[in-house]
Amino acid sequence: MRHLFRPLLAIACACLTAMPAHAQQTLAQLGRNLPSTVDRALQVPAQALQGVRETIDPVTGEVLEPLLDRARESRRLLRRFPDRLDTDPLGELVMKRQLIALAPSPDALARIVGAGFVVAERRPPDDLGLELVVLRAPAALDTRAALALLRRLDPTGSYEFDHVYQRSGGGMQSGSAVAATAPTDAREVRVGLIDGGVDAAHPALAKTDVHAWGCNGKRVPDAHGTAVASLLMGGANAQAGGVLYAADIWCGQPVGGATSVLVEALAWMAREKVPVINISLVGPDNAILRRATEALNQRGFVLIAAVGNDGPAAPPLYPAAYPGVIGVTAVDRRGRVLPEAAHGRQVDFAALGSGLRAARPHDSWATVRGTSFAAPLVAHRAALQVDAPRAGNAETVLQALARSARKTGGSVRDDTYGFGILEN
């Protein structure tokens, strides 16, 4: 659980200067009273959030919703679904007693089944060249012990947790909103989205042809997915639409975003030859997901991902931190990076991610904030650069965007803004 505690500290430190004096005193007092156990990450949200439950943006004066979303949501889900969720050694969420194998040999799979594992799903090589087998562990084993046993049974094989990835949006905020718009060169785009479900009937997507994947064909509109989709296709005042390939990896369920489903969605994007894919999700490093992003990059697909809102001192989050993935952070209307945004080498660009007007299901609108909502603005620009997957696309797009970015300092890039701010 220590891994979940690090983003809590990072965000708390980043927000201290933006807090009223009484909130700073409250947080300091709570910090002195924290228990000294490695499991304290589960207790922090219930206590420390009392000091940062409402934070004042130092530039706009807006009252923000709680910023510790990922750690708090992990804690809530673990308590609510102990039969479906577990944690890895770093405290990251995983599907309980469910593991992923990458192309196990017949002999290895026979040993695994003989040890009591059940093959829940076996997928032939997909459009990324990955052959995945989803395994269920014996009831007598916890998830960590099950993975350790798999690796002992097949030391040369590739086995992983089925990690859970979460939305990287900071959520809704009060105050006025601005309508994100497509760049001046507003043409139709062909772009992909892996998120929650999209309300294809929303007026913001009136000019968009939505191709949906997941949930056995059922459409389950989601607030986060619909908001990201509207920004991806040009914002509230979009002059041109295009084709959106929208993969829903939650299907309206509180537990979703599993690696096994995320990789399957990426394979669908590859099969449909969607040149640019936006992923406003964050989570830990996972060997299977890493292989999927490498395969996409080698095949000429461009991946755009939010860097997350765990704070400037938090460890890198994935898939944004994988090589070849373009990582996006968020700034406010004055070009200042959001205090909750992640910093590091994974940051390639910054875009507006505060006070944005975005669609919500059932013809409504909301003001949104977070790196989730900055990433689709960059993905839209990337989709104007390429119309099909081609070798070297990711580097070509990166260089083109870098030339158009507004530099924030004297260096070529930095760990806060990357190559600079992209302004529409």
Please give a structural write-up.
Helix content is 30%, strand content 22%. The protein is globular and about 60 Å long. The model is unreliable at 1-56 and 58-67 (pLDDT under 50). The strands form 5 sheets. It has a 7-stranded parallel sheet, sandwiched between helices. Strands 3, 4, 5, 6 and 7 form a 5-stranded antiparallel sheet that branches. Strands 9-20-19-10 form a 4-stranded mixed sheet. It is built from 11 helices and 20 strands.
Q: Mind telling me the C-alpha Rg?
A: 21 Å
Low-confidence segments, given as residue ranges, are: 1-56, 58-67
Strand order of the largest sheet: 12-13-11-14-16-17-18
Strand content: 15-25%
For the record, give the distance between the C-alpha atoms at the N and C termini, rounded to a whole number: 40 Å
Mean pLDDT: 84
The best one-word shape is: globular
Helix content: 25-40%
Largest sheet: 7 strands, parallel
Structure class: alpha/beta
Q: How many β-strand stretches?
A: 20
Write the layout of secondary structure elements.
Blueprint: H1 2-16, H2 21-33, H3 44-52, E1 55-56, E2 63-64, H4 69-80, E3 85-87, E4 93-102, H5 106-114, E5 118-122, E6 132-136, H6 143-153, E7 158-163, E8 166-167, E9 169-172, E10 178-179, E11 189-195, E12 208-213, H7 223-232, E13 242-248, H8 259-271, E14 276-279, E15 281-282, H9 287-298, E16 302-306, E17 325-331, E18 349-352, E19 356-360, E20 364-370, H10 371-383, H11 393-404
Parallel strand pairs: 10-19, 11-13, 11-14, 12-13, 14-16, 16-17, 17-18
Antiparallel strand pairs: 1-2, 3-4, 4-6, 4-7, 5-6, 8-15, 9-20, 19-20
